[in-house]
Amino acid sequence: MLNEIQTAIDFIVSYLKNFKPEQLEAFKENLNILLKDKYFSHWDDTNPLKGSAYRSISINDGRIDHLILIAAYLAGMDVSECFPNDLIIWVDPSNVCYRQGSDYSSICTIYKGNQRVQPKTYNHNNSKMNTRHGSSSKSSHIPKTRSSLSSEILVH
User: Fold this and answer.
1) What are the angstrom distances between the C-alpha of 82 and each of 6, 19, 142?
2) Measuring CA to CA, how many Å separate 151 from each of 127, 142, 144, 148, 156?
3) Which one, out of 11, 52, 59, 75, has a CA that is 20 to 30 A from the CA of 88?
4) For the chain, where are the E strands, in sequence order?
5) Model-level pTM?
6) What is the pLDDT of residues 102-155, one digit of tens each?
């Protein structure tokens, strides 16, 4: 589960340009915690497709997955213009793949078995990218624990 989550996070971060390195690190660590917490009871190595829809990370008609938004908020980032309009990432045991757009024939695998796979080359420049530098009034970009993330989410 850890390798699959890390692969998905690295793929998501490939869309995030013009942010400070400490913001990206905080984002990655926060998203890692959120995804592990979400997937913990929905991961079955013996039946990888069970729960696949639940584990998907989606951006649909420009609506960004809430876990990406939470991780970005906690890292002091505005990611509202960083992703293409339609992107879905499936994070399954021993398999991570994605589809951009609505063409189901163009699903690309980025993790298979126990190793990363070099996907077809995709030019992120074709999507709307954020040109801001990600400033925020949040003073701390220290990675959170599950309990502090939950508390901070409830407060906001």
Assistant:
1) 19, 11, 23
2) 34, 15, 10, 5, 9
3) 75
4) 57-60, 63-64, 87-92, 95-100, 107-112, 115-116
5) 0.75
6) 877 789 999 998 767 776 544 444 443 333 233 333 334 444 444 455 445 544
